[in-house]
């Protein structure tokens, strides 16, 4: 697969266009020069590269409004085949590309997926919303190097599946039809084949288990021929489109399954699958109508939830856009008084649009509506929303009905911080969404009621992996971090290391704090096996430069943490991370009921250690958890304490067997130092 030949989708004052095919084989050359004519190539006879054909791309600054995004030419050709005979909607493609952060290592747009197994998303040493991928490509995916467009083996596959006298279908299968228990038995066979043609093979297999009428469909050449039509699971074999020969479609389907396909066809299928994920975004458009001004009463109660929006963004493409999202536009509307239902457009991992349906007026559309991928919630009033939000925008939503009941999740909240900030607003009368080029990145809602001056942290923060239960005391007043309402996007990860009601406290044998200088992870150790989600706060790769400070705790003997103190450090200035202006976690100290303590601090000899402050807990409760926000490079930037009513007691010791104490996911081979006290 030649990755040096590229086309560019670019925008200028005259509109959005695609370039011809250029060649960029010198990694030390920053200029991208391509033929301006989309039908031309760099190797055409008589073509001479001109500096006037230079197009700024990716991180490069726009030149008089001229800026573009690079695509491998073979991928571009497959995209054209996908849309054939129509043209690729390049305006929408450019909007989507403008919305994608650039990979930290390199200058390519980072789509947020694994490129069909080509890379591995790093959710072990980073949280999912941090958008990090491992540096190395998957070497086992050797077919990714093959040409996906001109696959040499395809003519042979067509030859092997040639059939001079195939049976195109089954005129009338000899099946005993049970019309009483099988409603499909009443339909003629042509209708059964038409229904089957619009279903996935997996759906057909499931349907056969409940309806014997569909059993013979697996022997129907007509059905298997439909698998190769546009939009079906074998549409990537576009050579078949112009093939008029008689064919054994069942055999061709078997020859093109993943395990049997030649390497080039496997690579084509990988890229085709990614194009299918992109297609719904390109099919959507933004309704420019909903832009009503908020009334003064609505403004009193407006509350917003957003992804990690790059606030410095004005126009063009910012070279610092490494993660998060960009705000292109905002839309707002009043909620119809005669609301009947709400439709949410969901494509892949994003909520792209919201449609409000009433009985007496036209639908109100916010964001990008994709009707073929819409989930509809029947409701006559909106009391609020529970939202799953990652750095790129809104991933999933639960509707809170006017009577307080909750809908199921629309979209997929897995691996995404959750917030209840918009859950208890009352009767929502105004809705506002912020969008980038293809999805919703913020939702704001307003009601006639004023927002309470004090909203509990449990409700207003972004929580991962879920919102802590009301039975846990979050001790908001002693949290070292910034108020989530003013801190933009700072999800709080939390662990309940003590277990429900302190059930795991008697199994704790120590705590280990790791970092190359900053406080990056806090991990509890046990004499039993527990999931890392319970034991470890913070995620960071352990390297040769990591220092692991360990403090032993005799949980089996009745020792437990009674108090935690912490200090923060502040830096002012224009070129510092915003959280430094508020205060970043510098150190913390834990004290146990045995009178023992350990002090874990950031290693920075240039900074005078700041004053420690107790992280007070609710009277009558015991420390059983921690929470805090993390920066991908700076480690844990804030710390809070979870406590609950728990009864502590000594655990009955097991007889010593001489084996090692079990620890929770501690990586060996790294040096350890004594705790700083």
TrEMBL record:
This is Jacalin-type lectin domain-containing protein. Coiled coil: none annotated. Residues 499-645 form the Jacalin-type lectin domain. Residues 650-677 are annotated as: Disordered. Pfam families: DUF7600. Signal peptide: none annotated.
